[in-house]
Amino acid sequence: MxxxxxxxxxDIRIDDLPEPEVGPxxxxxxxxxxxxxxxxxxxxxxxxxxxxxxxxxxxxxxxxAPVTLGHEFSGTxxxxxxxxxxxxxxxxxxxxxxxIHDDVDTxxxxxxxxxxxxxxxxxxxxxxxxxxxxxxxxxxxxxxxADSVPLDQAALxxxxxxxxxxxxxxxxxxxxxxxxxxxxxxxLLTSAVLKALGVTVVVSELSPLRRxxxxxAGVADHAxxxxxxxxxxxxxxxxxxxxxxxxxxxxxxxxxxxxxxxALRPTGVLVVVSIWGHRSEFDMxxxxxxxxxxxxxxxxxxxxxxxxxxxxxxxxxxxxxxxxRIGLEGLVEEGFDTLIHRNETAVKILVSPxxxxx
Length: 358
Prior knowledge:
alpha/beta; Rossmann fold; 2 domains; 7-stranded mixed sheet; 6-stranded parallel sheet; 10 helices; globular
């Protein structure tokens, strides 16, 4: 089978690999679609971050570079290993792509397995990835989805789960006003979760395409261009002078962080969703004087079932966020280069490792 492999910074190659063996307790998945994530771009430009190096294996997977990329993917079960009796061949599934030590409690009541030591991700830290034609995954991390959800849309359930967990961390509730800084894939999907909960959403975004997507998809009530609109003043006007109840930083850009801090009401909540590759200059004075509550968020924890329910019930429509579909051979030129150099022209680009469906 073919797979896109990460060898190091600026070095991704399409290799021919043996198909994975489906062992006891595992599920064999034929990948239908895999999204390109901002984390993949960070690895390509600045990594390795979650990816191992050729000299340093990941402490859980034991793998060194090269590793297969891709952690936002959907597919169809083609085989089940010994002991797996609750999934059948042909079932549509998505993957919660964790690599976690075996002694960590990952049960349904756990709220912190995603913060456990050495945590890694399938498709970044080893154990195959969604940018390969097939993958074998432990049953715990495989989530069935209804056939009514198209597999291309299902590939967005993983990043939607990121938004779901971020909203959980914020404590946002119906009737609140949220300001989302950045309408890239995570900003838009976080907005989708907020709207599904009855929150009024204001998006600040430079890209006309992404502002239009936010409005057309119905995930934002207001989409502002910060070059033309005083975002802080606009939010205060919309809230009777109070400011936003919650804000989500989805860009890792300093000016966006500063805007959110200023636009929040006193005792408001700021959730930092983006992965910062550098230190920020944080406004400690505003933090203290407004008693802002700052919360980090990473990935998801037992979030997939509730996220899948939002999609299956029709409360969230993922179709508008798919702006491109490519084959594996176009991964770098059509996928990575577009999202790195022309990201204002795209939201989510999906890859078909097999080429079927294109």
